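Supplementary Note 3. Input sequence used for the single-chain structure prediction.
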Amino acid sequence: MAPLPDQAPESATVLVVEDEVVIRLMIADELRLAGFRVVEAANADEALDVLQTIDKVDLIITDVRMPGSMDGFSLADLVRSTWPAIKIIITSAHKSASNAKGDAFFDKPYDPAIVVQRTTQLLTIPSHDSD
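The predicted structure, written as discrete structure tokens, is reproduced below.
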């Protein structure tokens, strides 16, 4: 396996969807330090508002259990069907979630540096979908 890149792809935008404020701020700060543009949402409803209003989101990091009209799995399914080029990382404190349909999965608590590293890797791998 090739070494993982250590810098964010130029102008990549990551949407962090996490209802736990401390966790959301922690991963958002790490992503910003790595050079990503970061948008934050506290639940799937806010995430959908973001996806419908900003020009481009390259990757979503979402928790599974959140308040609101849908959980992280439903959000991932909707993103896959509506915005198939967006990469998805799913996080959860519940190991049963590890079979999720995202591009990567991380158990909570996770090491933010490793999530950032995987985010960078996912965004530097050429997508099979082309616009």
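Residues 1-5 have pLDDT under 50 and may be disordered. The helical segments are 21-33, 44-53, 72-82, 112-124.
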